[in-house]
Amino acid sequence: MSTIRTIKIEEYNYPLPNGMIARFPLENRDGSKLLFQSGSTIEEKRFVELPRLLPPNALLIFNETKVVKARLLFKKDSGATIEIFCLEPVEPVNDFQLAFQQKSPVIWKCLVGNSKRWKSGKLKLEFSNNGKIITLFAEKIKKLTEGFHVAFQWENNEITFSEIINHSGLVPIPPYLNREADENDSTRYQTIYAEYEGSVAAPTAGLHFTLNILNELRNAGFETDKLTLHVGAGTFKPVVSHSIAEHEMHTEKIVVSIQTLKHLREKLCDPVIPVGTTSMRTLESLFWMAVKLGNGNDQFVVDQWDPYEIFIDTDFNAKQALTLLISYLEDNKQNEIKGETRLMIAPGYKFRIAKGLITNFHQPKSTLLLLVSALIGDSWKKSYDFALNNDFRFLSYGDSCLFLP
After folding, report:
1. Is the pLDDT of residue 1 over 60?
2. Of the residues 109, 130, 135, 308, which has the fewest C-beta atoms closer than 10 A?
């Protein structure tokens, strides 16, 4: 554990010219390059070649979270613009799926831009919904360490909060794109299989997949399954401390069905390949939830240092972990695991379920780069150098990678 905590984030830095950051998506989702690394082999491929590059019998795990238009821009009478960035629901429910179906009023945890210009009182935003003018009010009700609790209220009680933000909000594209969201982002900053609203950032590895690619994978005999991790704004939070010991991971909510747990258990002898770091963190969090469940804790919450601090029986394995979770759900007549994770995967981490990774290129000095290094070791530097020297496109709208350690 002491070795993990002393990891210097500067060792995970690399020069990224602005011109190599993909500010807009390609015309075709599956038109990107793919960096293929298997062992010591590093090659430039195309994403459409993925079905021919995956190991035999691989099970691909997708994150079916859906990005919401979480940015709301309010204009004060003075002319000042106040940006409210919705992060997670507070009242009347804190469950994402239920929260989006709520009618007025609701309370959400939010980040507020230009908050000094909003001392008190209600903000007002008018927009059109099916030809009717709807007025949305926002009021700060509590200051938090990071952000505020904001109460939202609107006049038409037949309209849900989901409809409110979908008609009045903006797509929260990453800040490093240095541009405002356009209409194209509404569809392209969303996977084609997105199902459950709740993310403020896309699981970007999945942006490359098309129906054609998915069909090719199934025709080639590969199995797929889905889970949900709602991506929070903390995914863009850089590590600013000298070592990772001082970095605080953000909390993200996950949902995994009992059917997916059973499918995973059946496929543990084959390569389980998560699509994206969010899918990987969810898979690995399941193992630690089972460990804690075995110790009498059924809260399904994983803290960032749990893998490095909790003692486990060396014989306890992924199959036993999944069986324990399945048995718990069956005994309690539940259909899914609902929990939270702050799991930090850093070099020195031992993977329990994931056997590879499909992902994009990540920001310098980020926890996502630490995760990649945990999987493939220091060879991440060779891969990133190869990409930089061969004109790969970086970050959310950039090219893809397939890492097979």
Report:
1. no
2. 130
Specify the residue for token string 């995970």.
12
Instruction: State how far the Cα of 20 lies from the Cα of 48, in Å rounded to an integer.
Output: 22
Q: What is the average pLDDT score of the chain?
A: 94
Residue 332 phi, psi (nearest 5): -100, 10
Domains observed in the chain: 2-66+188-404 (3.40.1780.10), 70-170 (no CATH)
Residue 150 confidence (pLDDT) above 90 = yes
Classify burial at 324, counting beta carbons within 10 Å of its beta carbon; exposed 0-12, middle 13-18, buried 19 or more.
middle
CA atoms within 13 A on the CB side of 165: 29
Beta strands in 233-355 (DSSP E): 252-257, 272-274, 301-302, 336-341
Q: Is 337 left (phi over 0), alpha (psi -120 to 50) or beta?
A: beta
Q: Decide if pLDDT at 36 tops 80.
A: yes
Residue 187 has pLDDT above 90, yes or no: yes
For residues 285 and 353, the answer to whether their CB atoms sit within 8 Å is no
Buried b or exposed e, range 253-291, using 16+ CB within 10 angstroms = bbbbbbebbbbbbebbeebbbbbbbbbbbbbbbbbbbbb
Using the predicted structure, report yes or no on whether residue 236 has a pLDDT greater than 70.
no
- What pLDDT does residue 250 have? 87
- Residues paired with 243 in a beta bridge: 8
